[in-house]
Amino acid sequence: MRLEGQRTLVTGGSRSIGRGIALGMARQGADVAINFKTSREDAAEAVRKIEQMGRRAVAVQGSTESALDVERFVGEAHDFLGGIDILVNNAGILKRTAFLEISEKEWDAILNVNLKGYFLVGQAVARKMIDASTPGAIVNVSSAGQAVAAPNLTHYCVAKAGVNMLTKQMALELAPHKIRVNSIAPGLIETDMNRADIAQEEFRERRLARIPLKKIGVPDDLVGAVVFLASNEESRLVTGA
């Protein structure tokens, strides 16, 4: 119960990595607001699982790339939970397209969700924390792609590189308000977005060749790191990392 009594918002929390983190934080005692865009049934199921643990939970719908949506669903989460102590910026999309074939529309779609969305939600939640004088923790879910180029993922890797610097900037500017900001940068984690790719032997073997442990992760593998970074007791000196 390392997060007992903490109030958490997880974006993209209805499926895959976001869902794993949301449930993991609830197991550690946190009340959780799950943001989702379209998967209402998945969000409702995650809420039920959290409530079965004896924690409070709510699903709040909205697109993280829309400032109006963000303002609304952050307000809904804040009102339901009675405040927000922890934000996990996780909502993201992925599309594999060769550099020369990426359209402006596709570029904007990836950057808007994977980078702009982190900025909009981070700013909105930080304002709530500051208004309530709440010492907070923000964890941005990035990717190893922030530092390593990958075929057909130019827009995705550029967005994640942006998340890396956004994390540092947020950490620097929010430190005076006692808000810590860190990120995790997972390697290959099997999710709904890449399950079809991983099922292809050539793709799987090529990726495993670059992983010393020869293991493909699952969302639960990320929970411990997020819980550590979210805990103001365990990681009180960690920010911008």
Question: What does it look like?
Answer:
This protein has 241 residues and is of the alpha/beta class. The protein contains eight helices and six strands; from the N terminus they run βαβαβαβαβαβααα. It has a six-stranded parallel beta sheet with strand order 3-2-1-4-5-6, sandwiched between helices. β2, α2 (40-52) and β3 (57-61) form a beta-alpha-beta unit. α1 runs parallel beside α2 (40-52) and α4 runs parallel beside α5 (154-174). The longest helix is centred in the middle third of the chain and has 28 residues, at 104-131.
Write the layout of secondary structure elements.
Blueprint lengths: L6 E4 L5 H12 L3 E6 L3 H13 L4 E5 L5 H15 L4 E4 L14 H28 L4 E6 L12 H21 L4 E6 L10 H4 L2 H8 L14 H8 L11
Parallel strand pairs: 1-2, 1-4, 2-3, 4-5, 5-6
Short description:
It is built from eight helices and six strands; from the N terminus they run E-H-E-H-E-H-E-H-E-H-E-H-H-H.
Beta-strand content estimate:
5-15%
Give the strand line-up of the largest sheet. 3-2-1-4-5-6
Relative helix content: 40-55%
Please tell me what the overall shape is: globular
Structural classification: alpha/beta
Note the main sheet.
6 strands, parallel
Low-confidence stretches: none
Q: How far apart are the termini?
A: 24 Å
Strand segment tally: 6
Radius of gyration: 17 Å
Based on the model shown, name its key terms.
6 strands; globular; six-stranded parallel beta sheet; alpha/beta; 45% helix; 8 helices; 241 residues
